[in-house]
Amino acid sequence: MAVYTEVSDEALTAFLAEYDLGSLLSYKGIAEGVENSNFFLHTTAGSYILTLYEKRVREEDLPFFLNLMGHLFRAGLSCPQPVKNRRDTALGSLCGRPAAIISFLDGVSVKRPTVDHCRELGRALAGFHHAGRDFGMSRANSLSVDAWRPLFEQAGAQADTVAPGLAERTRADLSLLEASWPHDLPSGVIHADLFTDNVFFIGDALSGIIDFYFACTDALAYDLAICLNAWCFEPDGRYHRDMGAAMIAGYQEHRPLEPREVEALPILARGAAMRFMLTRLVDWLNVPPGALVQPKDPLEYDRRLAFHRKSSHATDYGWSE
Amino acid sequence: MAVYTEVSDEALTAFLAEYDLGSLLSYKGIAEGVENSNFFLHTTAGSYILTLYEKRVREEDLPFFLNLMGHLFRAGLSCPQPVKNRRDTALGSLCGRPAAIISFLDGVSVKRPTVDHCRELGRALAGFHHAGRDFGMSRANSLSVDAWRPLFEQAGAQADTVAPGLAERTRADLSLLEASWPHDLPSGVIHADLFTDNVFFIGDALSGIIDFYFACTDALAYDLAICLNAWCFEPDGRYHRDMGAAMIAGYQEHRPLEPREVEALPILARGAAMRFMLTRLVDWLNVPPGALVQPKDPLEYDRRLAFHRKSSHATDYGWSE
């Protein structure tokens, strides 16, 4: 959580002159997001988030993300709406970085989700998939099964310094995942990073979804598998089957899973855990000196993988007929 | 700029239950302030700043700061208003830290102040001194002339690693300041840290003053001398006499300086520069590993001291009859 780029009042005022957002009342850098610089922005027209995209986001992907947000918002999803400038584009430039203004969304992220939160999340995820159906753009998932072995090779011999045996069991998992990864499931736009920090609640009601910067085109059920990993485990690797059951049931209220998706759920969940274990492992082993961001523990996902290795049926995750 | 303490939704909700602020809509850590953790807080009652006081603020000083804000707000100054909880106190406890909620103030800090900004600041400073007149509490300035030599001894032999000759010229200045520091000037509550980041403007109008955590009881003209240092110099040490003149004139519209204050202005300005040079020097030489905050350059104030050494009369700062 950090602000990587300082924005002066003069630079911001010049930037805002391209928008119909009235005049500037205040802005504050917010300690949120690990990839970009974000500012809370208040103008006479309302409250917004100003994002400056830092180097980890590929500039050529930004139109996909911003158009997707606009599409989902118009489809009725509660998500930030990109604000277009007078040149009719949501993507501008500020302090030498690509920059965008999106509407401010109220809501609070829950640190410890309950069964009810999981049910709400399942419903919202199906709503997201539904709203994305007729989105015209596509973007390959650059962090899917083909990317995992190259990621693992980056960690290489260092993996076992993080946990004994990590290299061997990861290699075995990778072989299995590569051999059995399903490629024919119903696909569409997925969020691909719907962790608790990207979901807002007001009271017990889900109020919105944010941070679409990993969104891509992939199997819809894989998105659900990511959420099961992100929401229904304890850090020690214990799975809350009741939370998983509520999430799956909430999802199925709006979009019933097809039999082949139900069958694939365990391998998708195992793959999702592998994806986050690997990116965390690489970040863990490559903390730059003076880093502002504390890397996340890859072993949380290694422990989830231990659960997935023992789970062969969707019922293990809480699915029921 | 950093958030030192993470606050969970559960902890915050429990904390807010002691306040009449409706229900929580959102909160975000803001990258502002180097001493404390600050959050933008939105509830059904409005917008606020939540501050958790970290270890550099002495807990026993907090009632002074919070009562002062309340006093100044009631006296009509545009500054944050501390919000009292149901136990009728503005000071609570959150995540093991003293914590307070204050009203959110719109406005933008200017990075490069103009002559007009300086005049506005002068007026607001006199208004601050006026509003503080009947404040019943007092707090000694722990960073005044008596504190400077001990601060300098902390840097000691390392001073010359920052700039050649820094130790010798600082020692000479300290002797002069200690010998000639005025102790009989009109005194009262001063802000003592009114840098540009602590002053908000909306358009060209000053909209508020924030961050009272260095406020103390001291010579009123010393506060003006701090502002002349903070607002009217280029980083290379050049003084903008026209900006100083505007600030002094703005101040005198509301509170004309007494002759002894005019006479003392050069030594006060020199002392103010010394105070910030020294605290910056100590911070510069003691950056903890993994620090989230980039220390400020002490040499900016060493260069200001060079100007002050050549300036013996208030007219050098822009004062005129």
Automatic annotation (TrEMBL), chains A, B:
Lineage, please? Bacteria, Pseudomonadati, Pseudomonadota, Alphaproteobacteria, Hyphomicrobiales
| GO biological process assignments | threonine biosynthetic process
The pathway that the record names for this protein is: Amino-acid biosynthesis; L-threonine biosynthesis; L-threonine from L-aspartate: step 4/5
Q: What is the species of this protein?
A: Methylobacterium brachythecii
* One Pfam family matching this protein: APH
UniProt cross-references to SUPFAM superfamilies, sorted A to Z: Protein kinase-like (PK-like)
* Reaction(s) the record says it catalyses: L-homoserine + ATP = O-phospho-L-homoserine + ADP + H(+)
Tell me a Gene Ontology molecular-function term this record carries: homoserine kinase activity
Q: Which UniProt keywords apply?
A: Amino-acid biosynthesis, ATP-binding, Kinase, Nucleotide-binding, Threonine biosynthesis, Transferase
Q: Which InterPro entries match?
A: Aminoglycoside_PTrfase, Homoserine_kinase_II, Kinase-like_dom_sf, Pseudomonas-type_ThrB
Q: Where is the Aminoglycoside phosphotransferase domain?
A: 27-257
The UniProt record lists the EC number as 2.7.1.39
Q: Its gene? A: thrB
**Superkingdom of this entry's organism?**
Bacteria
Would you tell me the protein name for this molecule?
A: Homoserine kinase
In which family does this protein belong, per the annotation?
A: Belongs to the pseudomonas-type ThrB family.
